[in-house]
C-alpha cells in the first residue's frame, strides 16, 4: 500500500501545487529534512502566505481568537492544517493562552447557557481546552489529570457497567468478549451519575463518552495510552457500530460508509466522515476495521486515481483557489492524511 500512496504523492507534486499543499507534501509525505534548503524555502512561503497572514492579524494581543470555543479551535486547526510548526509565534501565543485558560489564569470569554452554570466552566470547557492544548502541545504536563479523568469515564461507561451487569466476559486469554451489543452494555444512567458525582454538579447535560474532544485528548501519543486495551477497543467498537454521531464532527454513525459524491442535507458528507475516521483511527482498536474501510475509501478515487470532493469545504482548503487541479490536490491530501494516520484534527 505504501508504494501506491507514494505514486499518488508523486502525481500530486507533478501537478505543480500551490505553496501550502506543496509544503505539506514535502513535510508530511516525502519527509525531507527540515534543514534542507528546499524544505526551508517552502516553509518560508507558507509563513508568508496570505492565508496565514490573515489569521495572524486576527489573533488578539492575548493570543486567541474570539470566541475561544469554536473560533480559536478553528484557527489552531487551520494553522496546523497548513503545516505550521508548533514553534511558530502564532501557535506559541495560542498555546500560552490556552494553557493559562486551563490553569485558571485566564478567564473564559463567554459562557453558554445550560441548566447549571458550572456545567460550562467545570465540565465542558476544561475538556474542550485540554483537548485543544493537546493539538499544539501534546506532552504538556497539565494534560495528565484531564486525560486520566476522561479515560476513567470511558472505562466506567463502556467496561465497568457492562461487567457489573454481566454483559461482557473474558475468555481464557483474558480477551474481553461482549455477550451482548455494546449499545445494550452501555449503562447511560450509571455513566451520568459518575460524572455528576465527580464534578458535584446537578445537571441533566452529561458529556457523552464518544465525542470529538475526548478522542483528541485520549488518542495515544508517543506510544502512551491512558485507556486500557479493552476500553480502547470498546470505544472504537461503540463508535463504529452504535454511536449515532461523533459529537461536534459528524452527524452519522462513523461505521456507515459514505460515497464521495453524495451530499446529504444532514451534513453526512464524505469529508466529514473521513475526518471522523481520522480521529478514530488513532486508537489501537482501529486495526479491527482498517482493511475494510481503507479498501472502500480507495475505491472512491476518480479516473486519475485521486480523490475529489464535490464541493469546497472552508476549513480544509489548502490551495490558493480551487480552480483546475487544486480541488483534487486538496481533497487527496485530506484523505491521505487519514489513511496514513497523520495528525487528526
Strand content: under 5%
Largest sheet: 2 strands, antiparallel
Compute the number of strand runs.
2
Distance between the termini: 24 Å
- Spans of at least 5 consecutive residues whose pLDDT stays below 50 are 171-180
The average pLDDT score comes to 90
Q: Quick one: overall form?
A: globular
| Helix proportion range | 40-55%
- Total helices: the number is 15
Structural class computed from helices and strand pairing:
mainly alpha
Strand order of the largest sheet: 1-2
Provide the gyration radius in Å. Answer: 21 Å
Instruction: Give me the strand/helix succession.
Output: HHHHHHHHEEHHHHHHH
Structure description:
This protein has 345 residues and is an all-alpha fold. Helices cover 54% and strands 2% of the residues. It contains 15 helices and 2 strands. A two-stranded antiparallel sheet has the order 1-2. The radius of gyration is 21 Å and the shape is globular. It starts with a helix and ends in a 6-residue tail after the last helix.
Amino acid at each position: 500500500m505504501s508504494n501506491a500512496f507514494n505514486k499518488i504523492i508523486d502525481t500530486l507534486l507533478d501537478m505543480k501545487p500551490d505553496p501550502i499543499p506543496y509544503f505539506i507534501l514535502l513535510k508530511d509525505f516525502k519527509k525531507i529534512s527540515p534543514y534542507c534548503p528546499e524544505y526551508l524555502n517552502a516553509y518560508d512561503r507558507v509563513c508568508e502566505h496570505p492565508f496565514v497572514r490573515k489569521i495572524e492579524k486576527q489573533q488578539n494581543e492575548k493570543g486567541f481568537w474570539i470566541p475561544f470555543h469554536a473560533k480559536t479551535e478553528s484557527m489552531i486547526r487551520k494553522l496546523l492544517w497548513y503545516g505550521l510548526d508548533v514553534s511558530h509565534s502564532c501557535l506559541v501565543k495560542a498555546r500560552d493562552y490556552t494553557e493559562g485558560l486551563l490553569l485558571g489564569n485566564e478567564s473564559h470569554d463567554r459562557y453558554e447557557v445550560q441548566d447549571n452554570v458550572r456545567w460550562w466552566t467545570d465540565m465542558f470547557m476544561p475538556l474542550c481546552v485540554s483537548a485543544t492544548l493537546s493539538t499544539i502541545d501534546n506532552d504538556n504536563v497539565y494534560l495528565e489529570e484531564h486525560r486520566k479523568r476522561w479515560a476513567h469515564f470511558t472505562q466506567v461507561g463502556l467496561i465497568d457497567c457492562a461487567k457489573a451487569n454481566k454483559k461482557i466476559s473474558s475468555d481464557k486469554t483474558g480477551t474481553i468478549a461482549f455477550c451482548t451489543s455494546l449499545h445494550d452494555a452501555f449503562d447511560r444512567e450509571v455513566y451520568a451519575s459518575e460524572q455528576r458525582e465527580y464534578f458535584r454538579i446537578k445537571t441533566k447535560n452529561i458529556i457523552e463518552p464518544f465525542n470529538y474532544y475526548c478522542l483528541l485528548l485520549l488518542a495515544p501519543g508517543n506510544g502512551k495510552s491512558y485507556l486500557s486495551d479493552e476500553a480502547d477497543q470498546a470505544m472504537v467498537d461503540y463508535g463504529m457500530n452504535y454511536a449515532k454521531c461523533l459529537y461536534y464532527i459528524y452527524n452519522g454513525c462513523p461505521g456507515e460508509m459514505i460515497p464521495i459524491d453524495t451530499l446529504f442535507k444532514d451534513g453526512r458528507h464524505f469529508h466529514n466522515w473521513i475526518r471522523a475516521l481520522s480521529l478514530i483511527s488513532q486508537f489501537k482498536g482501529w486495526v479491527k476495521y482498517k482493511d475494510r474501510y481503507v479498501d472502500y475509501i480507495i475505491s472512491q478515487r476518480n479516473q486519475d486515481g485521486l480523490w475529489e470532493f464535490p464541493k469546497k469545504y472552508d476549513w480544509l482548503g489548502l490551495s490558493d483557489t480551487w480552480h483546475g487541479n487544486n480541488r483534487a490536490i486538496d481533497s487527496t491530501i485530506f484523505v491521505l492524511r487519514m489513511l496514513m494516520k497523520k495528525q487528526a484534527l
